Automatic annotation (TrEMBL):
<dbReference type="InterPro" id="IPR027417">
    <property type="entry name" value="P-loop_NTPase"/>
</dbReference>
<dbReference type="Pfam" id="PF00005">
    <property type="entry name" value="ABC_tran"/>
</dbReference>
<comment type="similarity">
    <text>Belongs to the ABC transporter superfamily.</text>
</comment>
<dbReference type="GO" id="GO:0016887">
    <property type="term" value="F:ATP hydrolysis activity"/>
</dbReference>
<dbReference type="InterPro" id="IPR017871">
    <property type="entry name" value="ABC_transporter-like_CS"/>
</dbReference>
<protein>
    <submittedName>
        <fullName>ABC transporter</fullName>
    </submittedName>
</protein>
<dbReference type="InterPro" id="IPR003439">
    <property type="entry name" value="ABC_transporter-like_ATP-bd"/>
</dbReference>
<dbReference type="InterPro" id="IPR003593">
    <property type="entry name" value="AAA+_ATPase"/>
</dbReference>
<keyword id="KW-0813">Transport</keyword>
<keyword id="KW-0067">ATP-binding</keyword>
<feature type="domain" description="ABC transporter">
    <location>
        <begin position="4"/>
        <end position="230"/>
    </location>
</feature>
<keyword id="KW-0547">Nucleotide-binding</keyword>
<dbReference type="GO" id="GO:0005524">
    <property type="term" value="F:ATP binding"/>
</dbReference>
<dbReference type="InterPro" id="IPR050153">
    <property type="entry name" value="Metal_Ion_Import_ABC"/>
</dbReference>
Amino acid sequence: MCQVEVKNVSVHYGNVCALNGVNLKIKKGDFLGIIGPNGGGKTTLLKVILGLTKPSSGKVIKKNGTTISYVPQFSSFSRGFPIKVLDVILMGRLKKGINFFHRYSKEDIEKADYIMEKLQISKFRDRQIGQLSGGQLQKVLIARALAVEPNILLLDEPTASLDTNSKTEIYQLLKSINKDVTVVLVSHDIGTISSYVKSIACINQSLFYHGKTELSRESIEKTYGCPIDLVAHGFPHRVLRKHEENGND
Ligand SMILES: Nc1ncnc2c1ncn2[C@@H]1O[C@H](COP(=O)(O)OP(=O)(O)OP(=O)(O)O)[C@@H](O)[C@H]1O
């Protein structure tokens, strides 16, 4: 069953074409990895799905009752802000923005505690977020997104600048979350994500491929516009030869 359908979507920022005629169906229960080069339009695609960016043409159709939640890159989240882990997670329970007199219900706090327990971060409940490691903060941001009780979770590079162990932990966590929630993940980590996700979409303005994780070297090279070598761990890919615009490489 399709929860979200991106239909012939193009997005232009002034003269820049970020997406060009993209068609993509997100099925219930999928764990979709979105890959593509820098500036290829991956974040724009997430923003269009969230309704934060309006397509220049085309549309996004969401099945009734679909709730989408978003986990930003933790590096873009200000750690200097003096706020406790519990309070960050409770932000996910705010339905209509912050009201100065807002008080969270007992149910909201129970829900936040339940999620912290599930993600094994209860020990950080009363800690300031500035005192967390990158991996711990990423889990807190995932917990905040889960507090919304979404049926689709979108994540933008959740493992960027994490060490290998923290990366593995986050991917394992997402795999377990995927038992109940559809997960869509933007990543540069092609080699690693392909062993966790159920399907892959390759984006570089246009959608070059969407399907099983056993994607061919040809699909990847078409997406990246240059020959690349897949590396299972560490760097996501290595450029083999210089790409020339006329394709005579
Ligand atoms: N608000 C904006 N105003 C103008 N141009 C933008 C804006 N947001 C993105 N772009 C441009 O649109 C293109 C796609 O950007 P986007 O951030 O979606 O790519 P991305 O695949 O997520 O890149 P990265 O992997 O580097 O994060 C880029 O050329 C970028 O410079």
